[in-house]
Write a structure and sequence with these properties.
Elements (H helix, E strand, L loop, with lengths): L9 H14 L3 E2 L5 E3 H5 L12 E3 L5 E4 L4 H6 L8 E13 L6 E13 L3 H18 L3 E7 H9 L5 H12 L3 H10 L4 H12 L1 E2 L1 H11 L3 H17 L8 E4 L12 E7 L7 E5 L1 H6 L5 E8 L3 H9 L3 E6 L6 H13 L4 E4 L8 E6 L6
Parallel strand pairs: 1-5, 7-9, 13-14, 13-15
Antiparallel strand pairs: 2-4, 3-4, 5-6, 6-12, 7-10, 8-9, 10-11, 11-12
Length: 367
C-alpha cells in the first residue's frame, strides 16, 4: 500500500494545496514567466540568489526569467485601504541549484496576503503554512521567530552594520562560540552579550521560549514585538498543530525586507527547509507601497527527496507481461492494483534503474 502520509507526486500536492487555499478565500494569481530585469536589480538582496537568467526583448528591454514570485505579485497588486488581497500561485522559478550550481527550473506553490493586514491575517498565514506541510506529509515541524524581537535586541547594542550583519549570520548558524568572539572583539558590554547569546540558545517549546524572552526583553521595542509573538502563539496553540510548532531565532531573514513574524517548515527525511515565509512590510515600503504583507512559498521540487527517503522505490508493483498476454487482462490487473492503493507500471521487461517493491508476472494466457 502507498504510505498514507506521502503524496505520490508534485502534481497531486499542487492539486491538494490549491483546494486548501481556495477554501480560505485565496484567489489564483497567474503571471508571466519573465519580468523586466530592473525589478530584480533593485531588490537583489531579497532574492535567494543574485544569479538571474536574462535576455533582450525585441524592443531592446532587458528581461529576466523570474527567480522569484513575491516581487511580481507586489508589482501587480494595488493598495486599497481597509482591504486585503489574498492570492495563491503555482509557478516555476529559475534559480541556481545549491547542489549542481547550475540553473534549475523549480516548481513552487504558495500564497500572499497583501493589504491592511492584522493579527488574524498573520495567524491565518502561519496556520496555512502548517496545514500545507501537513497536506504533504504528517511528520513535519514549523519553526517561527519574530524579526522585531531580534532587531530590537541587536539595535540595543549600538554597534555598526558590519557587526549586525555578522551577528545575523552567526545566529542563523547557531554559532555561539563565534558570536562570543565577535562580541569580545567589539567590546560589547556583558549584558548585551548575554542577551545575544540567549537568543542563540532559545529553541523549542513556544511557551518555554516566550517565558524566557520575557526575562530578557526590556525596551519598549523588544516588549512590543514579543507581545505580538505571544499573541500569535496563543492562537496557534489552540489549533491541531500545537505540538508541531517551535520557536527558533535562527530563522532570520534580511532586515531590509522582513519584519515581524518569520517561519520555516521542515519535513522528516529532507535535510533542508521545504517552506519559507514571513512578514515583509519593509519590502513593500521599499517598493513604495503603504500596505503590509505576509506570505510563504513551498518548494515542491524538494518533495522528490521525501519520496526517495521514505519509500526507497519508484513504483509499488512492476507488472511484467508477454507479447502473447491478453491486453484486457493486463489492464484488468493494473486496475485492480491501482484501486487497491498501489502504483503500477506494466512492462514487457524490467527497465534499467527502476526501483520497485513487488515484481508480478502475467503469463501468455493472462494468468
Amino acid at each position: 500500500m502507498r504510505e498514507k502520509d506521502i503524496l505520490k507526486s508534485e502534481e497531486k500536492a499542487v492539486f491538494a494545496l490549491r483546494s486548501l487555499y481556495k477554501e480560505y478565500g485565496y484567489l489564483p494569481f497567474k503571471m508571466s514567466k519573465f519580468e523586466e530585469y530592473d525589478l530584480y536589480v533593485r531588490n537583489k538582496d531579497f532574492l535567494v540568489s543574485d544569479a538571474v537568467i536574462t535576455f533582450n526583448d525585441t524592443n531592446g528591454t532587458l528581461l529576466a526569467l523570474k527567480p522569484d514570485v513575491t516581487l511580481s505579485i507586489i508589482k501587480n497588486t494595488t493598495d486599497n485601504k481597509g482591504c486585503k488581497e489574498k492570492v495563491y500561485y503555482n509557478e516555476n522559478v529559475y534559480r541556481v541549484s545549491g547542489s549542481t550550481r547550475r540553473f534549475k527550473e523549480i516548481m513552487q506553490t504558495g500564497l500572499e496576503c497583501i493589504g491592511d493586514i492584522d493579527l488574524y491575517d498573520k495567524f491565518e498565514v502561519v496556520y496555512l503554512a502548517a496545514k500545507s506541510l501537513d497536506t504533504v506529509a504528517e511528520d513535519f515541524a514549523l519553526d517561527i521567530s519574530h524579526m522585531g524581537v531580534f532587531k530590537a535586541i541587536l539595535d540595543s547594542t549600538g554597534k555598526d552594520d558590519y557587526f549586525k550583519k555578522e551577528v545575523i549570520r552567526l545566529v542563523t548558524e547557531k554559532n555561539r562560540h563565534e558570536t562570543e568572539r565577535l562580541c569580545k572583539l567589539y567590546a560589547l558590554d556583558e549584558k548585551s552579550e548575554q542577551k545575544l547569546l540567549s537568543v542563540i540558545d532559545l529553541y523549542g517549546d513556544p511557551d518555554m521560549v516566550i517565558e524566557k524572552l520575557f526575562t530578557i526583553c526590556e525596551s519598549v521595542e523588544e516588549k512590543s514585538a514579543l507581545s505580538e509573538l505571544c499573541a500569535l502563539w496563543e492562537l496557534l496553540k489552540k489549533t491541531e498543530y500545537k505540538n508541531r510548532i517551535r520557536v527558533d531565532f535562527s530563522v532570520i531573514n534580511d532586515m531590509n525586507y522582513y519584519n515581524g513574524i518569520v517561519f520555516k517548515g521542515f519535513l522528516n527525511g529532507i535535510p533542508e527547509g521545504v517552506l519559507a515565509g514571513g512578514q515583509y512590510d519593509a519590502l513593500m515600503e521599499r517598493m513604495k507601497r503603504v500596505s503590509g504583507a505576509i506570505g510563504f512559498a513551498l518548494y515542491l521540487d524538494l518533495l522528490e527527496g521525501l519520496n526517495k527517503s521514505k519509500r526507497g522505490y519508484d513504483v509499488d508493483v512492476l507488472l511484467l507481461y508477454k507479447d502473447t498476454t491478453d491486453t484486457g487482462k493486463v489492464f484488468e490487473r493494473v486496475k485492480t492494483l491501482t484501486e487497491g492503493g498501489f502504483s503500477v507500471t506494466a512492462q514487457k521487461s524490467i527497465p534499467e534503474k527502476l526501483r520497485y517493491k513487488i515484481l508480478e508476472e502475467i503469463d501468455g494466457e493472462g494468468k
